[in-house]
């Protein structure tokens, strides 16, 4: 039996202090697209997302809502479950850090660190930013605020510390031996210089509030929310049982996709915690950029956060997925504006892809008795278009290896543009009377090209790709069937337009 290659991809777990916006939707969509792509390539995939439900930030949000924290997190975490459904995300698990399986895993990790002498009891006196759930030293502050702009408060309390300072050299060695651990490269360099700058021991427990995983054997303390939260990635694989099938199969192939703001937690603290507990760190951390709206940072106070569900209701899911993944190169910051969304939709989806599919399939339906056309001998131009489409899988594999979703789309759209050009050059409509056989050949080439394109757009545009493949009567949609050409004579259903042109209401 051939064993499948495995792939484990995770989103950060989202704080349940507030409703989701497009920034959250973005990470989840990128992971879903990658997971769909790997499934298409016959990988055994596990895709994890979930919610981060402990800590002071969530505790304060619950208090502000006048709710008991547990009732509050039960309610808000559902908005993230709902968002994943609305985005047609195929996640294999949804983890909540208030679940017993997770509390057990986090406490087990804590005990391991204690057992190995990696945690000691001390006292913390320093700055803390609840919004970032992060500790800062005086020299980090800019105008009395955290470097992120978050307000800080002075905290003095008994605290357990993780001996992070002892892991500086081992972390640097780890980055050296695993050059692909942090992606993209520019982020890797940032992390390395941060670690080279020296690491302080990290406070890993709090005593001034109760909403957290209780520290084993010391009920006055709750675990620092990041130590609790990071553990989610292995809880979902069955930790503390590292011999479980899932742990064995998926952990060596783990990829954490995170926003650039939380890279340090993932690329410094997390591998240090894991190595200190005698575990192997994840395989890869990919940090993406941030979205602004009309050039401005999204924030509660400005009330400018874009609700992804409203966006989907307006433009459709595929359009939102396409825009977010195509508009900026993954890793860079991007700006959302309604006009940019409409422009992208009309130029790439309606005018290019939608138009190609619509004009070709409706013509075939009317002029070829609703069947896949017959083809005669192929000309150089016929062969050239087919070759372009055939070349997509290896090209796109490289793009996905680099998380280059925008390039993935760009490469497909180059073929779409060429196919539209081919229609304009070959003018099949004019051949109906003069050369019907040639008309059929041209239409066959186009149907085949559309089939190949639709195979490859599945990870980004799941709904439209399925509709197009339905309209071509294609059954097996895994990449192994990419080379199974359409059979002339196959009956086709009546086509329906996939991306009608967007027009602003007057
Ligand atoms: N709970 C932590 C993660 C713990 S993972 C063990 C957290 N949660 S968060 O809800 O604040 O952020 C989750 C993700 O959303 C982060 O990757 C963050 O970068 C991303 N985004 C939040 N706002 C964003 C934008 N404006 N643009 C793009 N992504 C952004 O951090």
Account of the 3D structure:
By secondary structure, the chain is α/β, with parallel strands linked by helices. It folds into 2 domains: 6-288, 3-Layer(aba) Sandwich (Rossmann fold), CATH 3.40.50; 338-481, Isoleucyl-tRNA Synthetase, Domain 1 (Orthogonal Bundle), CATH 1.10.730. It has helices at residues 22-40, 56-64, 69-86, 100-115, 168-177, 185-196, 225-230, 232-235, 245-250, 263-276, 308-315, 317-327, 338-367, 380-390, 392-401, 405-426, 431-434, 436-457, 462-471, and strands spanning 6-10, 14-15, 44-52, 93-96, 119-129, 134-136, 153-162, 182-183, 202-203, 205-206, 222-223, 254-259, 284-288, 291-293, 296-297, 334-336. Strands 1, 2, 3, 4, 8, 12 and 13 form a 7-stranded parallel β-sheet that branches. It has a 4-stranded antiparallel β-sheet with strand order 6-5-7-9, with helices on one face. Strands 15-14-16 form a 3-stranded mixed β-sheet. Strand 12, helix 10 and strand 13 form a beta-alpha-beta unit. It is elongated and about 90 Å long. The protein starts with 5 loop residues before the first strand and ends in a 35-residue tail after the last helix. The relative contact order is 0.11. The protein binds 5'-O-[(L-methionyl)-sulphamoyl]adenosine. The site of 5'-O-[(L-methionyl)-sulphamoyl]adenosine has 19 residues, from strand 2, helix 1, helix 7 and strand 12.
- Number of contiguous helices: 19
- The amount of beta strand, in percent, is 5-15%
The total number of structural domains is 2
Named once each, the bound ligands are: 5'-O-[(L-methionyl)-sulphamoyl]adenosine
In angstroms, what is the radius of gyration? 26 Å
- CATH hierarchy: architecture of the largest domain: 3-Layer(aba) Sandwich
Helix content: 40-55%
How far apart are the first and last residues' alpha carbons, in Å?
61 Å
Q: Low-confidence segments, ≥5 residues, pLDDT <50? A: none
Can you count the beta strands? 16
Mean pLDDT: 96
CATH class of the largest domain: Alpha Beta
Biggest β-sheet, characterized?
7 strands, parallel
Describe the oligomeric state of these chains in a short phrase. Answer: single chain
Could you please say which CATH topology of the largest domain applies here? Answer: Rossmann fold
Name the CATH homologous superfamily of the largest domain: HUPs
Classification by helices and strands: alpha/beta
Silhouette? elongated
């Amino acid at each position: 039996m051939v064993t499948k290659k495995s792939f484990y991809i995770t989103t950060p777990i989202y704080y349940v202090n507030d409703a989701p916006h497009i920034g959250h939707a973005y990470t989840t969509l990128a992971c879903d697209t990658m997971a769909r792509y790997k499934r298409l390539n016959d990988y055994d995939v596990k895709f994890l997302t979930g919610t981060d439900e402990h800590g002071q930030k969530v505790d304060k949000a619950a208090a502000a809502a006048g709710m008991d924290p547990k009732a509050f997190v039960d309610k808000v975490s559902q908005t993230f479950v709902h968002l994943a459904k609305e985005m047609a995300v195929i996640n294999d698990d949804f983890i909540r850090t208030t679940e017993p399986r997770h509390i057990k895993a986090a406490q087990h990790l804590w005990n391991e660190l204690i057992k190995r002498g990696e945690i000691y009891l001390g006292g913390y006196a320093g700055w803390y930013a609840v919004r970032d759930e992060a500790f800062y030293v005086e020299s980090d502050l800019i105008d009395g605020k955290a470097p992120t702009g978050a307000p800080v408060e002075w905290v003095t309390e008994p605290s357990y510390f993780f001996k992070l300072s002892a892991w500086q050299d081992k972390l640097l060695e780890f980055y050296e031996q695993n050059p692909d651990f942090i992606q993209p490269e520019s982020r890797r360099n940032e992390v390395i210089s941060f670690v080279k700058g020296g690491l302080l021991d990290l406070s890993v427990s709090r005593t001034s509030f109760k909403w957290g995983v209780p520290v084993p054997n010391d009920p006055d303390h709750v675990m620092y929310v990041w130590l609790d939260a990071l553990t989610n990635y292995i809880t979902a694989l069955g930790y503390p049982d590292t011999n479980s099938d899932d742990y064995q199969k998926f952990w060596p192939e783990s990829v954490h996709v995170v926003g650039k703001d939380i890279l340090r937690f993932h690329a410094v603290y997390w591998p240090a915690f894991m190595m200190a507990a005698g575990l192997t760190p994840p395989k890869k951390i990919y940090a993406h950029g941030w979205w602004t709206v009309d050039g401005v940072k999204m924030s509660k106070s400005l009330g400018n956060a874009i609700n992804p569900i409203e966006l989907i209701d307006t433009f459709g899911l595929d359009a939102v997925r396409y825009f977010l993944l195509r508009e900026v190169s993954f890793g860079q910051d991007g700006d959302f504006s309604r006009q940019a969304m409409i422009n992208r939709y009309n130029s790439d989806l309606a005018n290019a892809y939608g138009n190609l599919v619509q004009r070709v399939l409706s013509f075939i339906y009317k002029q070829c008795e609703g069947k896949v056309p017959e083809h005669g001998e192929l000309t150089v131009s016929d062969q050239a278009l087919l070759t372009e489409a055939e070349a997509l899988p290896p090209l796109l594999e490289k793009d996905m290896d680099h998380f280059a979703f925008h390039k993935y789309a760009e490469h497909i759209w180059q073929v779409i543009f060429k196919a539209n050009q081919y229609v304009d050059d070959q003018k099949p409509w004019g051949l109906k009377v003069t050369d019907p056989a040639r008309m059929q050949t041209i239409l066959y080439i186009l149907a085949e090209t559309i089939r190949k394109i639709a195979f490859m757009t599945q990870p980004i545009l799941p709904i439209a790709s399925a509709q197009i493949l339905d309209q071509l009567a294609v059954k097996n949609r895994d990449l192994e069937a990419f080379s199974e050409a359409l059979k002339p004579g196959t009956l086709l259903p009546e086509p329906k337009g996939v991306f009608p042109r967007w027009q602003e209401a007057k």
